[in-house]
Amino acid sequence: MANMAQAIRMALHYAEENLGVTDIFGEDVGAPLGGVFTATQGLKTAWNTPLDERGIIGMAIGLAMAGQRPVAEIQFADYIYNTIDLLKIAGNTCWASHGDWNLPMVVKTPVGSGIRGSLYHSHSFDATATHIPGWKIVMPSNPLDAYGLMISACQELNPVMYLEPKALLRIKGEERIPGEPEDDKSLSKLIDAPLGDRSQWKPQWPAELSAYAVPIGKGKVVRPGSHVTVVSYGRTLPLCKRAADELASSGVDAEVIDMRSLWPYDWELIKGSVEKTGRVLYVNEDTEVTNFGEHLVRRTVEELFYKLLAPPRLLAGKFVPGVGLADTLEMASVPQLGDITAAIRALASEQP
Amino acid sequence: MSKPRLLNRPEDAAPLERDLLVRMHDLMVKARVLEERLIQMYKQGHGYFWIGGPGEEAFNVPLGLLMKKGQGPAYDYLHAHYRQSATLLALGEEPIGALRQMKNTASDPYSGGRNFAGHFSKREWNIAPVSSPIEVQYTMAPGTALAQKRHGGDGITIVTGGDAGTAEGDFASCLVWSSRPGMELPVLIIVTNNQWGISTPAGTQHGETHVADRGRAFNIRTKTIDGNDPINAWRELKEAMEYVRRERKPFLLEAMVSRLYGHSSASGANFVGGEQDCLARFEERLLNDGVLTREQMNSLRSRYTEEMAALARQVREEPLPGPETIWNHIYAERK
Ligand SMILES: Cc1ncc(C[n+]2csc(CCOP(=O)(O)OP(=O)(O)O)c2C)c(N)n1
């Protein structure tokens, strides 16, 4: 099975060939590297830019205005903050011009902890991204969704922020992407650049790739359950699934929802689940103050208060200035499996 | 490397066809009267904020007249700033749109009552939406220019902004991205230098002799011109545009202009002395050269004044956007 970086690459290849993507660009996105995480290796429209994040976002806006379909990469979300007013403009251009202009552009950027990224290379961007109206924001937690969300992003008329959980980029999926070859080794032979000299290398793309799309705004129940609802996305999602699986033997039956899209998001799915279980835990790794999960908690309280058997909970990153490099520091800063298991167990057994 | 050429003297300018001179004068008067009306609307409480371009007509009118107007990469893109009503009028825009934007009526063609005066946007003519943050347009310009280079033809991207704003990184971004070796882009990078950033004199903030000099470091052809003379501006713009159209490379043009009513309504929007008035100067010349009589020019101004007053009265009666329209156009939808 493909890993997430390969899935994104295949989706972008499909989008270049079939969805009108004209430019995939960013720092080190073109040959020879194909992006720090290899998600753009071998793509025919990939090119390298000056080391200038504002220039990258501005270029994407300009290209989108002129009828091209750009996919811009910010090397790490940690470095997107100096583009914030341009992101705001990309989000408000349609509204400000009373619908005259729209910007079909994708910005992809790796986010979050899990690769020992130290103070930088570990930031989350979900709270900030969801604070900028006019964007659609997605974050996959497995390669198949990564593929399907990228296909949807490249079909959009509006700016899409595509957040890539770094910690999951090299993990193989459990479900096959429609059209990917049967075994991983042959996939790697086809599309992974060799080490060393790559100047003559060209990928061979699987011919059967399709427009398999995960609709933006649709979440997914990844594990049905009846006692407690766990809502997550990105790196923490597989941890929530594992925690739920482990707890099943001790009689706690947790339903796990992968949001996949942060904006717009699948409130109907969350609501239905919380109405069923009466208990909900939101999990993400962004710092906990003015966290996107706080919005979800607020909405849960306002709309579902009388269905709740316990207060809704948020398990998020600690409100500290960074993620420290030492293993102990990182582990203590963002939710780990043990934290999630404990939080689900506590919530499932909470009595007024 | 190209050498920057400095201000040329007015007498160097070959006279233009009479028709063109008359047309430029007409548009300059129209733009001036429009701005004066906008200021008056603001002062009468028919608008919350004024910012605009009285003093820049001599440069902005020729710019609009020289643009290749249309939609898509075959035509010129304009990434404007907020002092360019004269450019819009020269392109053929009706002044009532600016009045509607000032009054933030539902009929405001640029933003549906959402944005400030002078914040134009018109996709049909490749006018990118003017955005309040200073200089951001300079980072977007290389994007439309890349699409144009790819498209072929002679369409170019034009980006304008103020001198103070060139301190922003976006201006540097524009120089870097439009001049990458072998990948130069057809951008006419314009700085209209009125020598002020709100209340701060340029001389206290910028060490470069001319803003245009900054282009030299990037091997960008540059020039600083007198933007208060429409004949000179026409010729210089034409030359710069022809270069960008033909060579598909950037050109940095710095135009020295005036700011006749201060920075914006925030600084009072009153006429300030001591700045050269490009319209008065041009009228002097037209008079001396026997192109137009004082009477002709005066009656033109009164005609426009009456017209704008009538339009302002009309706009006053137009409804504001309905509150429910805040939800419109957050996203574009497939039709
Ligand atoms: C990024 C940003 N910072 C500050 C402001 C506030 N502001 C509005 S106009 C202006 C001065 C701009 O001066 P200049 O670039 O010379 O243009 P001019 O107004 O003189 O044409 C400032 C600081 C702004 N609009 N955007």
From TrEMBL, chain A:
InterPro entries: THDP-binding, Transketo_C/PFOR_II, Transketolase-like_Pyr-bd, Transketolase_C
SUPFAM superfamilies: Thiamin diphosphate-binding fold (THDP-binding), TK C-terminal domain-like
Keywords, in A-Z order: Oxidoreductase, Thiamine pyrophosphate
Pfam families reported in the protein's UniProt record: Transket_pyr, Transketolase_C
Record flagged with keyword Oxidoreductase: yes
Domain Transketolase-like pyrimidine-binding: 2-171
Molecular function as annotated in GO: oxidoreductase activity
Cofactor: thiamine diphosphate
PANTHER family, per database record: PYRUVATE DEHYDROGENASE E1 COMPONENT BETA SUBUNIT (PTHR43257), PYRUVATE DEHYDROGENASE E1 COMPONENT SUBUNIT BETA (PTHR43257:SF2)
Name of the molecule in the record: Branched-chain alpha-keto acid dehydrogenase E1 component subunit beta
